[in-house]
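Homework help board

Subject: predicted structure for assignment chain

Our instructor gave us this sequence and asked us to write out the predicted structure in token form, then describe one feature. I got the tokens but I'm not sure how to describe them. Can anyone check?
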Amino acid sequence: MNNHTVKAFDEELGVLSRKINEMGGIAEAMLVESIDALVKGDKTRAEAVVQRDKALDALQQEIEDLAVVFIAKRQPMANDLRAVMGTVRIAGDIERIGDLFKNIGKRVRAMDSTMIGTRTLSGIQNMARMVQEQLKLVLDSFSQNRPDLAREVWLRDGEIDALHNSLFRELLTYMMEDPRAITYCAHLLFIAKNVERVGDHATNIAETVHLVETGEPLAGPRPKAEDTHYTKGLRPE
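My token output:
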């Protein structure tokens, strides 16, 4: 492969990487905005989160189209092919992360803002901060080609699960103590599950980054806190 071809090859791979970074930036912003909309009962901001998801959908489609053209034209093998396919997988995870934040925005639009209280929201805010750290770290692992950072994200997923299970029990207690809070707390249960699922997708990305960079999957079962019987049935819309 001559120098001209190698340069074009690397530039095209770079385009895919930059688009992943762009998707990651949008997803991180959606996380902050969706939780802020929840805390403030800001339905206008919630709607903005819903609308931002369209940008992620468009970027994911663009990445898939570019990857197909790249494979057809360059016929990459081994590490290069793994990098291209890894990029497509990561784009899919980020797109689904956007869907989860979009669902939070939709729920905020439907919630009664008069029920909002700091006590019931603090657990979700804490979990969102943990997820934000995980998301930032895994995106850094991709942009910096750091499998060690990816492994760190993978190992910390159980912490988010444990916090989610604790929050689930707390919200059930509120619902039993005050039937008027049932609808509001039910929304919070699904929002909390959406946030927890973002952590799962961050872990998926970590596994992909590690495989692309090392050629080896992360060893052993994924660290998970044990779900309760009820939280297993809670899935995002």
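Reply (TA_rk): Your tokens look well-formed. For the description, you could write something like this. Residues 3-40 form the longest helix (38 residues). That's the kind of observation they're looking for.
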